[in-house]
Every structure is written in C-alpha cells, then in structure tokens.
Amino acid sequence: MPDAAADAAIGPPLRLAFGLSLEDLHHRDGLLRVDAAWLDFLREAAPALAARYDTARIDPDALDAKAEAALLIEAGGAVDAFVARLFGIESDLAELRAEHVALDPLWRVKWKFVKRQALLGVTPEQVAALDADAARAELAVELAARGARPHPSGFDELAFARAVLDWQADPVANEARLELAKRYAAWAATTEAGRARHAHGVLFRHPRQVDPFDLLEQARTLEQAGVRVTTIRPEHIRRRLDRDRAPFALTDPGTDLAGALDQTHYCILCHKQGKDSCSKGMREGTDDAGRAVFRPGPFGEPLAGCPLEERISEFHTLKNEARPIAALAMIVIDNPMLAATGHRICNDCMKGCIYQKQTPVDIPQAETRTLKDVLGLPWGFEVYALLTRWNPLNLRHPLPRPDSGRKALVVGTGPAGFTLAHHLLNDGHQVVAVDGLKIEPLPPRVAGVAEDGTRVPFDPIRDVDALHEPLDARTQAGFGGVAEYGITVRWDKNFLKLVRLLLERRARFTLLGGVRFGGTLTL
Question: Given pLDDT bands bounded at 50, 70 and 90, which one contains residue 217?
Fold first, then answer.
C-alpha cells in the first residue's frame, strides 16, 4: 500500500471526548476508562435503563435470551450517542441516520400498498391491458408536479412511495392517481418486462417461491455464435472482461443502504418469539448426549443457522431503527471479524431463515452493508476497531481480560487463524502468528509496525476509503490465507487489510511471514 494512501487516510488529528486519548483505546487500562465514561454517560442519559444494565453486567446469565435482546436493543440508542460524542461525529451520524429514515416510505408502501393492494387487488387482465410506458409517463408528470427531480433510472421509487402515502391521506380526491399507481405497481412487480425495468430498485422486488429441486426454472436458451447456450438467470452474469472493467476488478460491490434496509425490513424479527432460526438453527430437540438436533434441509444438510449464533434479528431491529453503530456492535458481540464474513462469504444464516419456501432474507448483504455504513463515517474504522476491543453490548465480555502471562502461537493467518488470534488477544494472551507466505509490510503510520518489526506510534484512520486499492492493481499482501489467494473478484479483498490492522496494531500481537511450521519453525 503506498505511503500516499496512508497519508490521505490519516487526515487531521483525532480529538476524543470524555478526557480520553487515542492511547486509551488500545490498552486495557485505557479501555477501563472508556467503559467508566460509558457507564457515567448511560446513568446520566437514562437512569432506569442504566440500573437494569448494571444489574445485567453483574449477572448476565440471569436474563433469558428474549430479555437480554430487549435490554441490548433499548441500550442501542445510548451506544450510538456515546460513540458519536467520543469521536466527535454527532453531525455525521445524524446525517447517516437521516438517510435511513428518509427511506422509510419505501417499506411502508412496499408491504402495505404494493403487496396488499396492488398484488392482491389488480387482476392479471388489468395488468395485461396496462400501457406501462404511458402509465409511467403519467406518473412522472404527477411526481414532477410534486417537485420530484428527474431520476437517473427514469423512475424515482422513493418519490413514488412518498406520493402514494400523500394520496392515501385523501383517497377520495386521489382515487384515479391511486388506481394508476396500483396498476403500475402490479405490472412492475409481476411481469418480466416490469421486473427488468425495475431490476435495480427495491420497491417492486418481492419474494418468490423457492423450489431447490428446480434450479433450471429461470433458465434461458440462446444462440451464441452458432452454439446453443443455456444459462440460469443470464441477467445476473457479471463479465470480468468488458469495455468498462479490467479483468480482475471487483465484479460485485454489494448492495447500497436501500438494498440492505429492504432485507432488514423483510425480516420478521423473530428473536422476540425465540424463532430466529437464522441464528440458532431450526432445532428439533436434542439427542441422547444433549446436543441440539437440527431439521434437515432439502438435500439432507442440517439447518443449523449461523455457526457463530450471531444476533441477526437483533441487529436488523437496530438497523431498522436507524441505529447504525449499535447495529454493528450487536454483530460484533459474536462476530468481531465480520469484515471477513457477510456478502459473498457465508450463507448458512440464509439456509436457516424462517422463510423456507420463498426467497430468504439476504442477511450477508445486510451484515456487510452495516459495516460499510459505519466505515463510511469519519474515523469509522476506529469505531469498528474499538468495538472489537470494548463492546458495551457484550454483557459477558465487554473488555479484554487482564494479562494471562501466556503466549500462543497461531500457525496460518487465514480466516480461522486471524479469528483465533483476535479471541486469544481479548483473553489476555500474547500472540505470535506465522504464515508460510511473504507478508507485505503496511506503512508504519497506519500499522504501528516498522519494517524491522519494532513497534512505532501510529495515527488514527479518518478516511478508510483512502486505503482502498483496486483489485486489478492490488499486490497480494500474503495475509488472509484462502481469503487472499482462493477467493475471486466477487469479494473485495480490501477487507483483509482492515482485519489485519485490527490485529497488527495491538501491542501483544506479532505477525511473521515466510515461516512454515514444520520447516522454518520446527516442533
């Protein structure tokens, strides 16, 4: 990574609130001061909540899962406010929250108007008789009269949703407008032409029935250069080579905020009923040894849900409430290395989703977008990094444990290795990680490690985007194991740099490349 990128990422000095310093965020004694400031903040902001929170920290196992989830979600607002004040990003967080709230009309109209009125109230004959182009043009005139600006896609779904809500306030006066909107929505959601026209939107995209034994249901057969080619959903193909993309550029950047919120609002938030099978799996009792027995999937695999039992429904709830930092903190409780999971990496949660006969919730997209939204804030990486060391929503392990006096060797810095290293560090151990590949050094100003391995002061990262490298121009850094050399351009390997920084900046961690266990290093 060029030093110029590091300089651009660092920016102006970071001034923390509550009398804390950057050094406090990276050592246990300092994190104890962070925690004390948080407890004082919570007691002042919400005394009754603080009393219940203090009791839960003393004996977290006294709460059942539902009560614990309710307490953590209630504390989410205070977590957002405290972290924002700590880093001096209150206005930036307010803007991000406003972006969440501004999209609310989409979900209100999607599930109450499009699904219940358009899809159930408009007949196939009415859809077939609709002149969609004329209807869209008429709706565009209506939206323009309301002050909507021309949209790059030709149709502004958010402006349409806002208009529908306003028309519903006086349904008699707006009967004709609502009827037109209803018929157009039915066309957009149910016809092949309508789905293609709005393929990049969320308002008219609705769940479909899923048949795992009919994978060719949406296949298309085309003649290409005299050859008959059958392709499943060819519109989803992302070509590596085209006039706008280099051969090894990222082909799938993931969803935007609207796409993520579309999924979190589709989730029925079933942790309240203890049915969050995406997290806990579809359990069917226990075996003779007391181990959970899971319902088999369509191909016989156990529907065990997330291997980490990540609190998915809970983080969706906080995301829906426009609490992005708290949503990230909720994920980090069980999955601190989420930069290396999520979209394009894992989907056991989707397999275990309560929706078994229709499109499941795209949880990995929502998870990765939640991280990206926080990383996009000023000092966003520092916020994420802090939550991996101190997490107010982690009642059982909010802080790193004291020095254990033990040293651990981690062999291999793939996903298993770097995740293990993180947990060993938080348990108070000294960690040396070795990898057979050559590890390319990062700029000392960013990583806090000089080329000779000595520790040097590092600067906080204000703009994480400045560390980004195009995949087609990026040099393999050696860190990440299979995530570095085995994953294709569908996944953004820049996340590996973030995971590495989470570890390498910690004083008790040492990373050595070019060391093979059983070769360079013997038993």
Answer: low
